[in-house]
Design goal:
Layout: E1 12-14, E2 18-23, E3 32-36, E4 40-45, H1 49-52, H2 61-66, E5 77-83, E6 89-94, E7 102-107, E8 111-117, E9 126-133, E10 147-150, E11 160-164, E12 168-175, E13 180-188, E14 195-200, E15 209-215, E16 218-226, E17 233-242, E18 247-252, E19 258-263, E20 267-273, E21 279-286, E22 305-307
Antiparallel strand pairs: 1-22, 2-3, 3-4, 4-5, 6-7, 7-8, 8-9, 10-11, 11-12, 12-13, 14-15, 15-16, 16-17, 18-19, 19-20, 20-21
Length: 308
């Protein structure tokens, strides 16, 4: 069978190269955020139906449904620019929708900044609600922040996120009594290395949470569980998964039962644990080893670029 053909529907002009992108939950509409190497986060959205209608022209509901507002001639609008210092931003992520429309950004200066939209249905005004100093800035010889992941929402569990650095991962929790974030625990890696990717598994029916952190050619899986004595969060290294090349991306499936890992050798592996908690590869995909030279045109962009 022929593979589906993807077509460019919109092109967004950006003033600086974009390092990472994140989509908001569909409940907030088609909201896209992008971070740059100059410490800025841009938030875009497509034109709304009432904005796409020209003055003096009315459209019925049927006409609005038939009209493809994602066409190339409909430019996405930049709703806001969030300045997060001047250090490059390495990762951005929207919080689970139950916490509200929150956007977090992890930077080389070791800070995680959390912004909140004033009006979730019209997110053109954002407020910096929290600034977490997780690590020492890279400019001062520290590790900085490299990656980040939110914990999925669970009733009765405070908002939590895990932040990867150059030598460990840090779990942060929001304390409602103090209305502030605090460090819950640290995840010590099995070997020194920069955390290239980290992901908090959805917790459905498990007594403990699982966090996967990729560093070098190893993926460490940690189990997190609240202590029965004082309720503090305790972390334990559950497994270490070895790969034949450096791992640059990890992600759990929606149930938290399978872990996908991608390496620089163009190999994607799917891991699953057995009844005793041991992980093994259940499926693997080997991509082409030949990299198209045409894809290197983005390297020449210094002062501007495009997001397709």
């Amino acid at each position: 069978d022929a593979l589906p053909i993807w077509m460019v529907k919109s092109v967004i002009q950006v003033p600086h190269p974009i390092t990472t992108l994140a989509w908001a939950h569909p409940e907030s509409g088609s909201l896209l955020a992008g971070a740059s190497e100059r410490g800025a986060v841009c938030v875009w959205e497509p034109p709304r139906p009432w904005q796409a209608t020209k003055p003096g022209q009315e459209q019925s509901a049927m006409e609005l449904q038939e009209e493809d507002l994602g066409d190339e001639d409909q430019e996405w609008q930049q709703n806001a620019t969030l300045q997060c210092g001047v250090a490059p931003i390495r990762h951005i992520s929207f919080a689970p929708r139950q916490h509200g429309l929150l956007l977090s950004a992890a930077s080389d200066d070791g800070c995680v900044r959390i912004w909140e939209a004033g009006r979730p249905l019209a997110p053109n005004s954002w407020t910096l609600v929290s600034q977490l100093q997780v690590a020492t800035p890279r400019a001062k010889g520290g590790p900085g922040c490299t990656s980040m992941s939110w914990r999925c929402y669970s009733p009765g569990v405070p908002p939590s996120l895990v932040v990867g650095t150059a030598d460990e991962a840090v779990v942060m929790q929001y304390v409602h009594a103090h209305m502030a974030w605090k460090k819950a625990c640290s995840l010590k890696l099995s070997a020194p290395g920069r955390v290239a990717s980290i992901h908090w598994a959805p917790c459905l029916g498990r007594p403990q949470d699982l966090v996967a952190a990729a560093h070098g050619s190893t993926v460490d899986i940690f189990s997190l569980q609240a202590s029965s004595a004082n309720g503090a969060l305790e972390a334990e290294l559950h497994s270490s998964l070895a790969h034949d090349a450096d791992v640059w991306k990890v992600e759990w499936n929606m149930l938290g039962t399978c872990l996908g890992t991608a390496t620089v050798s163009n190999r994607i592996s799917v891991w699953r644990s057995n009844f005793v908690g041991e992980f093994s590869i259940v499926s693997a995909i080997q991509g082409c080893s030949k990299v198209a030279a045409e894809g290197s045109e983005a390297e020449g962009m210094e002062e501007g670029g495009e997001v397709d």
